[in-house]
Each structure stands twice: as structure tokens, then as C-alpha cells.
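Retro notes, item 3 of 5
We never archived the inputs for the heme C complex last cycle. Fixing that now. Sequence and ligand:
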Amino acid sequence: MLAKKWIITFFLTLFSAFPLYSLLSGEGMFEIDRKFYPYYPSLLKWDKTRADFTKPTSCASCHPEKYAEWNGSMHSLAFKDPIYQGELNAAVKAVGPEIAKQCEGCHTPAAFVKGEIKEPGLKGKSELALAGVSCDVCHSVSGHSHWQTPYRQPENGSLILSPG
Ligand code: HEC
Ligand code: HEC
Ligand code: HEC
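Structure as it came back at the time:
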């Protein structure tokens, strides 16, 4: 009986010591290379050497069915949806303005990497910005940086966009 108790105590100590160890040693904390991830906390990357992003209405003339499918979908509403805008404002109020970059990196990626999103709200935003997850967001993904991320796994939009 006694032996069993000690075995349990040993394992409990071992496991409970781990988070403390990693906290003290700094393991599990990460450093962000802001040159590599210029949009942090969004982990998107933009290959600027290629062409500019194209707005969905430009694809519509040749791909009318695709446009009809996309238009009104949640992807097309990702940025202009009032629920999203409301949640975004609530998040900014709760934890400060940097969090907006995280949201925008997924909710309007093309305009975000171009630096178009400077103020909250929809006023004065370009067609590309309002298009949210537009055609080019998906069709310009050329790769990913999933294994270079802080946790070495796909996270927070760790995709590379290369339009053109
Ligand atoms: C001037 C007409 C035109 C415009 C504008 C246009 N496309 Fe296309 N696209 C084509 C044609 C033609 C094809 C080849 C047709 C086919 O294979 O069915 C094609 C093929 C594609 C394919 C399939 C490619 C493949 O390798 O199978 C994708 C994806 C695509 N277009 C996306 C887009 C997106 C996104 C936009 C807007 C940014 C766009 N296109 C704008 C004419 C156009
Ligand atoms: C890593 C990408 C990513 C990030 C970062 C992100 N979102 Fe989203 N968000 C999504 C996806 C994908 C969906 C749709 C998923 C679903 O419906 O389950 C979504 C759905 C939503 C929705 C519900 C759909 C809608 O438009 O009403 C809201 C609201 C929302 N997100 C707000 C936010 C806010 C606010 C932030 C920042 C604090 C944020 N998101 C950050 C990807 C992201
Ligand atoms: C959320 C990501 C996403 C968005 C937004 C998106 N696409 Fe696609 N698209 C895809 C994927 C993934 C495929 C390949 C699907 C498949 O093979 O069935 C595809 C396939 C296509 C094709 C190839 C033809 C076909 O039927 O497979 C065309 C053309 C195309 N998309 C055009 C568009 C246009 C135009 C828009 C905007 C109006 C758009 N897409 C928006 C992800 C996206």
C-alpha cells in the first residue's frame, strides 16, 4: 500500500513540476522575428514582388458562377458583417488595438497586408477591403510558414500570399 502511494506521489510531483520548470527556464515562451512576421500577431506573409491583388468583381466577368457562389457567402461577409465589426470593437476595447491585426489578417487578408486598414469601421474602405476573404486571398496562396511559427505548427494565418 505504501509503495503504491509513493509511486502516485512521485508521478504527481513529476507532472506538476513541468509547467513550473518551463516557466522558470523560459521554455515554452517564444520570441517573434518581426522581420519574418511583419504583421504579427497575424502570421500572414505577403510576397510583394508579384502583381497586386485583384478585386472579386474583376474575376466576375470571366467566372460569373464562381462570383455568384462567393457573393453573399460568409467569406464575402467576413469583414463587413456587423457581428464581426462588433466583436472586433469589443476585442480592441478589452485588450487594446494590437489585437485588431490578428483579426484582420484572417477577416480581410489582402487589404490588411497592403496596410489599408488603418481605422476601425467600414467607412472609406476599398472594395478589396470590404470583400473580406476575396477570390485572391485563396487563389494567391503560394505556400505556408507553418513550421516556423512560434509554436511550430499552423497558426494565426501562417500562409504566404503571392498574387498574380
Ligand atoms: C479575362 C478572363 C478571366 C479573368 C478576368 C479571370 N480569369 Fe480565371 N480563368 C480564365 C480562363 C479562360 C481560365 C481557364 C478556363 C478553364 O480551364 O476552365 C481560368 C482559370 C482559372 C482557374 C483555374 C486554374 C487552373 O489551373 O485550373 C482559377 C482558380 C481562376 N481562373 C481564378 C481566377 C481568379 C481568382 C480571378 C480574379 C482574380 C480570375 N480567375 C480572373 C479567365 C479569366
Ligand atoms: C486564424 C484566422 C482567424 C483569426 C485570427 C480570427 N478569425 Fe474570426 N473567424 C475565422 C473563421 C475561419 C471564421 C468562420 C469559422 C466558423 O464559422 O466557425 C471566423 C468567424 C468569426 C465570427 C463569426 C462569423 C461572423 O462574421 O459573424 C466572428 C464574429 C469573428 N470571427 C470575429 C473575430 C474577431 C473579433 C477576431 C479577432 C479577435 C477574429 N475573428 C480572429 C478566422 C479567424
Ligand atoms: C475560401 C477560399 C476560396 C475563395 C474565397 C475562392 N476560391 Fe475559388 N477555389 C478554391 C478552391 C479550394 C478551389 C479548388 C476546388 C476544387 O478543386 O473543387 C477553387 C477553384 C476555383 C476555380 C477552378 C474551377 C473549379 O471549378 O474547380 C475557379 C475558376 C475559381 N475557384 C474562381 C474563384 C473566384 C472567381 C472567386 C471569387 C469570386 C473564388 N474562386 C473564391 C478556393 C477559394
